[in-house]
Specification:
The chain is α+β, with helices and mostly antiparallel strands. It is built from five helices and ten strands. The longest helix is centred in the middle third of the chain and has 34 residues, at 133-166.
Length: 269
């Protein structure tokens, strides 16, 4: 087995390399190449998606008559993994990428659209500045202003981070605790003020409502229509119970209104 691993070969003394026949290969000769798909494509025949990184046994050839700044352009032939339709791509040295020639469609890639838009803006700017010194000066002034704004924002962020780095964890917790205590104290004061603003029946500031059937007399006394009420009660015994229920409902409505005001205030807080 050792004779198959020699590094040097024996050449006889009468060996003449010029006597060897030269093989003339065509310029567009195809060679086999194992490659990975550089992009995601979709087959036009069976609509199969072939993703980036899929390995293929392809045939490679030179594109005759096409170069870019002396760089050769290559074309690759391979088959779809589902329907075996022939697909063709070639290199594009101008954009340092590959271009689909036939048999498939390249999937949409948003970053490529952004790059193309940026390239178009740059090309348009260069065309505007060509032969126009004032336009070139204006663009440079805008660029310098933008750079100054970015630098100022970076300085502000650095100063903010330095200020935050000087504060310890204990100080931050103390500040949060003090803030929570102040907020709780403020809520308690507001609740006390709300309670004091509500006038109850037993308080000094309570104002009694004068009934509609009140008839003041000349001597300052209160003379209600007791005879009429007594007459009505004598004729309808159930009216007394109705009057009691109405008074009880009125008291409950007053209490409910006070509690509703308190609950509404708490919900707003």
């Amino acid at each position: 087995m050792g004779e198959r691993k020699v590094l040097n070969k024996y050449y006889p003394s009468d060996f003449d390399p010029s006597n060897l026949s030269k093989i003339r290969r065509p310029k567009n000769q195809q060679t086999k190449a194992r490659m990975m798909l550089p992009m995601s494509i979709r087959c036009n025949t069976c609509a199969n998606f072939i993703y980036k990184g899929t390995k293929f046994n392809s045939r490679k050839e030179d594109v005759i008559g096409e170069t870019y700044l002396g760089i050769r352009i290559f074309r690759f032939y391979f088959k779809c993994s589902r329907c075996s339709a022939e697909l063709t791509i070639r290199t594009d040295p101008k954009i340092s990428d590959y271009v689909v020639e036939s048999g498939a469609t390249r999937n949409f890639e948003p970053w490529r659209a952004e790059d193309e838009e940026a390239e178009n803006r740059k090309r348009k700017r260069d065309a505007e500045e060509t032969g126009d010194a004032m336009k070139s000066l204006e663009n440079r002034a805008l660029d310098s202003k933008r750079e100054m704004g970015i630098a100022a924002a970076l300085d502000e962020m650095k100063s903010m981070r330095s200020r935050q780095a000087a504060v310890s964890v204990g100080e931050m917790l103390d500040a949060l605790r003090r803030k929570a205590e102040e907020k709780e104290k403020t809520l308690e004061e507001e609740d006390e003020a709300l309670v004091k603003s509500i006038v109850f029946r037993g308080s000094r500031n309570y104002i009694r409502r004068i009934p509609d059937d009140h008839i003041p007399t000349s001597d300052g006394g209160d003379n209600f229509k007791r005879s009429k009420v007594a007459e009505e009660l004598s004729t309808k015994p159930t009216d007394f119970l109705t009057l009691v229920m109405q008074r009880r409902a009125r008291i409950q409505a007053t209490c409910s209104t006070s509690m509703y005001q308190c609950n509404s205030h708490f919900r707003r807080e």
